[in-house]
Input
Amino acid sequence: MMHGMLIHPAIHSDLASQIFMSGTGLLAGKKDFILAVNPLQSILMKKEYRILGAGVKGLTAAFRLAQAGNRVIVLEKESRVGGVCRSFLRKGQVLDLGPHLLWNQHKETRKLIKEIGIGEMVYRKKINHALYYNGRFYVYNRIVELLKLAPLSLKILKPMLEKRFSGEKTSGLQIITLIKAALVRGHEYYLRGGMQTIPNALVDRIKDLGGQIITRTADVTGDFIDCTPHGPFLHSLMFYFGLNKQLQKTWFEAIFPEEKYWFQRLSDPAELAPEKKHGTVIVADRYFKYLPSDISGEKEKCLESLNRVIPGFSKMIEWEETRKVLNAFPLIRSKNFVFAGIEKAVLAADQIVREIS
Ligand SMILES: Cc1cc2nc3c(=O)[nH]c(=O)nc-3n(C[C@H](O)[C@H](O)[C@H](O)COP(=O)(O)OP(=O)(O)OC[C@H]3O[C@@H](n4cnc5c(N)ncnc54)[C@H](O)[C@@H]3O)c2cc1C
Output
């Protein structure tokens, strides 16, 4: 059985009353739920599971359990589903808060996406991964550039990644994996409508299968399947800049060791935005153990860096937005961080379901 995972319902009374009030035909008993379903349905249903956390992991686990004929109730403490996999609209652009692409290697995630009916929303896009160092870009999914980068990688990339990934030791093997991944993939998968399309579709499918999602839950006690992330956490600051100009796409996702930022999502609004208003949206993120009290100071530093590498950057800005992502932990703390992310959440959910079935 997985660490921290408890199964079978027993419920805190506040929560029980919330569920009862939700009017879905559930009656809350002292210890167990009693399903107010017709006798045939209750015979066909195998078990009932309460799942904590409506991120990709919790929703995938719930979907799989519901597919297997079980009754599922997903309990989410926030008012929205998706966890860090969340999108929002800004000036007609769909922007992602946490994840924004599906790595090429993420086969299980793409399989799941097809299964939940949003396969047609996925599109492939060529992407350059670059390192900006000492005044120049190394686009390391080109073999020639990679060769130039090789001597630098251990000197620059390794300490930089270790810093980004919270002081975790990065092995030479991981560096090679990272570069190899960039080299062989050359393209990634994106979702029209933003990444929130995934949790939204999962919710729809869970409901189709008779499951229930309850948001804004109070503290839950008793037995449940724990699909919440566990600390220690890192937090991130996301800076979004909508530019009035299409930037030359020499890079798409770039690491700037000297600037301490990871600039990414040089988005092509022709493909991402419902209204083709802006030239480029550029997103910079930075991770922190503790979020700084002066966020505007951080933004200034970020802008300084961007102006250094993209001359006249500030003058191109039409709008900007800053978002905090609390508990951005799942991105890191993976044995092989390169392949972490949504795929890891999907695989963890599959493992949970295998272990309890
Ligand atoms: C900035 C950023 C960029 C990323 N980019 C990518 C990317 O491009 N591609 C990719 O594949 N991955 C990316 N990732 C990683 C990916 O988003 C995550 O690995 C994945 O979404 C994690 O899903 P999860 O369900 O494990 O956790 P979460 O999304 O954190 O979900 C956990 C849920 O549990 C809820 N919860 C917590 N405690 C409780 C409680 N006590 N009771 C009830 N509910 C609770 C939370 O509110 C949350 O909704 C990125 C992550 C970040 C932060």
Notes: The pocket of flavin-adenine dinucleotide is lined by residues 52-58, 75-78, 83-85, 98-103, 217, 220, 228-229, 236, 285, 325, 328, 330-331, 341-345 (CB under 6 Å). Residues 24 and 232 are 37 Å apart (CA to CA). The radius of gyration is 22 Å.
